[in-house]
Specification:
Helix content is about 50%, strand content about 10%. It has about 700 residues and is of the alpha/beta class. The protein folds into 4 domains: about 1-265, 2-enoyl-CoA Hydratase, Chain A, domain 1; about 300-480, Rossmann fold (3-Layer(aba) Sandwich); about 505-590, N-(1-d-carboxylethyl)-l-norvaline Dehydrogenase, domain 2; about 600-690, N-(1-d-carboxylethyl)-l-norvaline Dehydrogenase, domain 2. The strands form 4 sheets. It has an 8-stranded mixed sheet, sandwiched between helices. Strands 1-2-3-4-6-9 form a 6-stranded mixed sheet, sandwiched between helices. The longest helix is centred in the C-terminal third of the chain and has 21 residues, at about 600-620. Bound molecules: (S)-3-Hydroxyhexanoyl-CoA. The site of (S)-3-Hydroxyhexanoyl-CoA (3H9) has 26 residues, from strand 5, helix 3 and helix 13. (S)-3-Hydroxyhexanoyl-CoA (3H9) binds next to strand 5, helix 3 and helix 13. InterPro entries: 3-OHacyl-CoA_DH_NAD-bd, 3HC_DH_C, 6-PGluconate_DH-like_C_sf, ClpP/crotonase-like_dom_sf, Enoyl-CoA_hyd/isom_CS, Enoyl-CoA_hydra/iso, NAD(P)-bd_dom_sf.
Length: about 700
């Protein structure tokens, strides 16, 4: 790249000036890009031989937004708004030529151009809400002026990437180019000049705002309809307010309102946490010991052992990605039920319009149900999803060892068990790996990739790549009981049960956890999943509140009663009977009950999780603190606006957590014994992110 600076080129093509951005990976609007663009537009605007300007990008995408890594740092040079002012006020037509994804600040730059052309595979969106922001360069002002208020509200609060055809229907794109984008854009620019088309400035066009002026209730209705989805988040409301300002204020005043909202959010903890998760998610796929150029094993056919809920859900991931799957069960009834569930899930997507009949047929066409284990012989990857018991898992792996082809990856979906012990049942532990999917496996995006002590690097690289291919967020974890996610969960579960016996009401515990931002409290969650899950059905001597409830036939929502009572519509209410069961059990155990504050509930549930995270880091089970955050945000519903347990811990203050753990240790014993790493970090005044 030459002409303006390392990342911006300005070249004439006849009487059209072409401004190109080349700043890999995603042409984000870094200081260098902004500076180059500004200079290029000043120059092209002033050059009287130039009759139109095309702005286009090299590489995989049009500008994908502001440079998120620059947020929170002092900024210098021209702002995005300065560039937009130059574009919008240019005395000649400016055409944005879009391929890949025009997102955030990228789309905002394009919206300040007079026209937008795009490839048929291009997408556009304002995804700032996903990193806790509002668009800060007029996106909330120009977008509703093109697509109308209702659509704009949907786009800015969902952050959805709109495909080219839909964007054209909405008026976001003026023209879709077949073939070469640069040539198409130059031809379009020439025609604008030749036909003397107007310099369309979106800011001047207020027509699309009229409907909301006549019907201002649209905002209240939108808030109400989406209250559940927006719960806890600051950014959706700010986005709505910015669009309200577009309707009620002048362009200039509303631009200032948008700027104020952006500034407040970008300095706040929610956006900080959401940006942390954005980068953490991408960081998770980087494994120092397994560099990106590590060869991967081709995976063309996948075998699944077990057609239960997990096996079926796992199979769907691969069918969705166009990979043939053979699913094996021991008995015909279970195989038929599993296949029928997969078919039913696809039909439900069909009825919601998410899949077409041919999509469903193609996916089901890739599925081969079988009762013959031997048919797994030509699979490149086999995933075991049988009952969570070591003896059963070992038997499966012994059998697999006998039939799988050399080099096939043999994976276990175990959520707790020792992967090395499973691997030892084979003669090829280097090919054995854990692929821990989360239920429902076709929906949840987390994939814990468990490495055993002998797992080969290329098997790890293959699993990580495949995980991304099927749309998961793969996180590499080491082998231990419960890996990362369930190890943290076990801490919370233990405290929840202890708190209950000490006098906290279960609905108070649920409320505190829910208000923190988790999708559900632990008891409501238990009732949903079935509180008998994993318990021995023949146990005649119940030894915990949970076992007592199961003994009473209160197995959760499915029996109309569990920790809570349920009516016919699964609405829950508090149960006096359960309160009594808890009180009696505590008395029998000699546990004195007392009032427990919300603060204590939260600290006792969450601080031990942070402490466990520190132990996990110390043991090398997770590569970095942010991987633990990704696991809990993607797999367990930790509110993304709190950034995951380790990020949150630093906001609370590691010293405060350590001090409280020490106090709790004195009262309640070694469940609260601080991790040596936590002590060391506090002593050194450092945080997890410095490791
Ligand atoms: C904004 O625009 C604010 C404005 O309204 C106004 C301000 C005043 N900045 O995802 P990938 C990096 S807010 C910095 O793996 P893909 C990413 O970290 C922004 N870096 O690729 C990764 O780095 P590495 C609004 C960014 O092909 C590499 O690029 N825009 C940015 O799967 C590849 O990323 C957004 O929120 C960025 N903006 O997906 C869009 N974007 O290789 C955010 C990416 O070191 N970006 N990186 O790990 C995305 O959604 C996806 O990255 C995208 C590509 C769809 C573009």
């Amino acid at each position: 790249m030459a002409s303006i600076n390392e990342v911006i080129d300005l070249s004439p093509k006849g009487d059209i000036a072409v401004v190109s951005v080349n700043s890999p990976p995603v042409n984000a609007l870094s200081a260098k890009v902004r500076e180059g663009l500004y200079k290029a537009f000043v120059s092209a605007n002033a050059d009287t031989s130039v009759r139109a300007i095309v702005v286009i990008c090299e590489g995989r995408t049009f500008i994908a937004g502001a440079d998120i890594s620059e947020f929170g740092k002092p900024s210098a040079g021209p702002t995005i708004r300065d560039i937009q002012d130059l574009l919008e006020a240019a005395p000649k037509p400016v055409i944005a030529a879009i391929h890949g994804t025009a997102l955030g600040g990228g789309l905002e730059v394009a919206l300040a151009a007079h026209y937008r052309v795009a490839t048929k595979s291009a997408k556009a969106g304002l995804p700032e809400v996903n990193i806790g922001l509002v668009p800060g360069a007029g996106g909330t002002q120009r977008l509703p002026r093109i697509v109308g208020v209702e659509t704009a509200l949907d786009l800015v609060t969902s952050g959805r990437h709109v495909p080219a055809q839909e964007a054209q229907r909405m008026g976001l794109f003026d023209h879709l180019v077949d073939g070469d984008l640069r040539e198409g854009a130059i031809a379009f620019a020439s025609s604008v000049v030749a036909e003397g088309k107007p310099l369309l400035r979106i800011r001047d066009n207020n027509e699309k705002l009229d409907a909301a002026k006549i019907f201002p209730e649209i905002f209240a209705e939108f808030r109400k309809a989406n209250a559940k989805r927006f719960r806890g988040f600051d950014a959706p409301e700010a986005n709505i307010q910015a669009i309200e300002a577009a309707v009620n204020e002048s362009f200039e005043v509303a631009m200032e309102i948008e700027r104020g909202l952006f500034r407040k959010l970008v300095a706040g903890t929610q956006s900080g946490a959401q940006r942390h998760v954005f980068f953490a998610e991408r960081q998770a796929s980087k494994i120092p010991e397994v560099p990106e150029d590590t060869p991967t094993r081709p995976i063309r056919k996948v075998g699944i052992v077990g057609a239960g809920t997990m096996g079926g859900g796992i199979a769907m991931n691969f069918l969705n990605a166009g990979l043939p799957v053979i699913i094996v069960e021991a008995d015909q009834g279970a195989l038929d039920r599993g296949t029928a569930t997969i078919q039913r899930n696809y039909e439900s997507s069909l009825s919601k319009g998410k899949l077409s009949p041919s999509d469903v047929a193609a996916r089901m066409g890739l599925l081969t149900p079988s009762l013959q284990f031997d048919e797994l012989a030509d699979c490149d990857l086999v995933i075991e999803a049988v009952f969570e018991r070591m003896d059963i898992k070992k038997e499966v792996f012994e059998k697999l060892d006998g039939i799988a082809k050399p080099g096939a990856i043999l994976a276990s979906n175990t959520s707790y068990l020792d992967l090395d012990e499973i691997a030892a049942a084979t003669s090829r532990p280097q090919d054995v790996i854990g692929l821990h999917f989360f239920s429902p496996a076709n929906v949840m995006t987390l994939l814990e990739v468990v490495r055993g002590s002998a797992t080969a690097k290329d098997a790890i690289a293959s699993a990580m790549t495949l995980g991304k291919k099927i749309g998961k967020v793969p996180v590499l974890v080491g082998n231990c009981h419960g890996f990362v996610g369930n190890r943290l969960l076990a801490q919370r579960q233990r405290e929840v049960q202890k708190l209950l016996l000490e006098g906290a009401k279960l609905w108070d515990i649920d409320r505190v956890i829910y208000d923190f931002g988790m999708p559900m409290g632990p008891f409501a969650m238990n009732d949903l999943a079935g509180i008998d899950l994993g318990l021995d059905p023949n146990n005649k001597t119940p030894n915990s509140v949970r076992e007592l409830l199961v003994h009473l036939g209160r197995r959760g929502q499915k029996t109309g009663a569990g920790y809570y009572d349920y009516d016919g519509n699964r609405n829950r209410s508090n149960s006096e009977l359960v309160e009594q069961v808890v009180r009696d059990f505590a008395a029998q155990r000699g546990i004195a009950q007392r009032e427990i504050s919300d603060e204590e509930i939260l600290e006792r549930c969450l601080y031990p999780m942070v402490n466990e995270g520190a132990k996990i880091l110390e043991e090398g089970i997770a590569l970095r603190a942010s991987d633990i955050d990704v696991v809990w945000v993607k797999g367990y519903g930790w509110p993304v606006y709190r950034g995951g347990p380790m990020h949150w811990a630093e906001l609370v203050g590691l010293k405060r957590i350590l001090d409280r753990l020490r106090e709790l240790q004195k009262i309640h014993g070694d469940d609260f014994k601080p991790a040596p790493l936590l002590e060391r970090l506090v002593a050194e005044g450092r945080g997890f992110k410095t490791l």
